[in-house]
């Protein structure tokens, strides 16, 4: 599950769970999407959101135990497709948020967990005890176009190649050099505190959320077209 804490204009989305892996299943997806919707509804001028987690994992991807617990191959495929649809909804929710977003990746992010991190405007990462790892090639799973569009929008061609076609487990320092993350820190607490500080600094700019979201749409126009996010007419304020 997850929880949402509000400190003034700052929203802190905390990934929680008994196993500490934060595996994506219908319950967790629903919890995160509901929290994002609440943040959007309660946002004001100058809001920002940071996503944090506790434990060894930031997010360990799809809950394949839940998928494989189905009683037939047909039901297994339905469950997997349902998770893909939820992940698409989550990407859409983050991309549409009228505020800056930061992912404080203090643990491993695997497959869908990498997608969750890249949904944010900024990604901070733990230097050593944290990796980005796309396991899809190892499992023989095709990456659907909405998520490929996210990778194209957020990271460089060579980084995409190494992440997706080489299946590298990319540690924080490597991710920084590859331009995937903005900064790296030594420990979980340092990453979390840096994410909160960055969100707080951005919130102090008191940007108009609707304009922020609209500029983001323009920046990632291909991704937004695939997700079906339409541009929204906004009245220009008097200068």
Automatic annotation (TrEMBL):
The keyword Zinc does not apply. The keyword Lipid metabolism applies. InterPro entries: ClpP/crotonase-like_dom_sf, Enoyl-CoA_hydra/iso. Coiled coil: none annotated. GO terms for biological process: fatty acid beta-oxidation. It is an enzyme of class 5 (isomerase). It catalyses: a (3E)-enoyl-CoA = a 4-saturated (2E)-enoyl-CoA; a (3Z)-enoyl-CoA = a 4-saturated (2E)-enoyl-CoA. Pfam families: ECH_1 (PF00378). GO terms for molecular function: delta(3)-delta(2)-enoyl-CoA isomerase activity. Keywords: Fatty acid metabolism, Lipid metabolism. Its EC number is 5.3.3.8. SUPFAM superfamilies: ClpP/crotonase (SSF52096). One of its GO terms (cellular component) is peroxisome. Pathway: Lipid metabolism; fatty acid beta-oxidation. Belongs to the enoyl-CoA hydratase/isomerase family. This is Delta(3)-Delta(2)-enoyl-CoA isomerase. It comes from Gossypium klotzschianum.
């Amino acid at each position: 599950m997850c929880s949402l804490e509000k400190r003034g204009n700052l929203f802190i989305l905390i990934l929680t769970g008994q196993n500490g892996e934060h595996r994506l299943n219908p319950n967790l997806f629903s919890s995160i999407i509901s929290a994002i919707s609440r943040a959007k509804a309660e946002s004001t001028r100058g809001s920002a959101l940071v996503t944090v987690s506790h434990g060894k994992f930031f997010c360990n991807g799809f809950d394949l135990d839940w998928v494989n617990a189905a009683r037939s191959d047909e039901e297994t495929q339905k469950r997997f497709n349902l998770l893909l649809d939820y992940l698409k909804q989550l990407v859409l929710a983050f991309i549409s948020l009228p505020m800056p977003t930061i992912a404080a990746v203090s643990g491993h992010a695997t497959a869908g967990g990498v997608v969750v991190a890249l949904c944010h405007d900024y990604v901070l990462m733990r230097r050593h005890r944290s990796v980005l790892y796309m396991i899809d090639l190892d499992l023989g799973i095709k990456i659907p176009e909405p998520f490929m569009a996210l990778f194209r929008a957020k990271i460089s061609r060579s980084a995409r190649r190494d992440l997706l076609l080489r299946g590298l487990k990319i540690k924080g320092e490597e991710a920084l050099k590859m331009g995937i993350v903005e900064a790296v820190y030594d420990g979980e607490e340092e990453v979390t505190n840096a994410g909160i500080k960055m969100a707080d600094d951005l919130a102090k700019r008191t940007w108009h959320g609707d304009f922020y979201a609209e500029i983001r749409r323009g920046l990632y126009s291909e991704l937004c077209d695939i997700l079906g996010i339409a541009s929204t007419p906004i009245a220009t304020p008097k200068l």
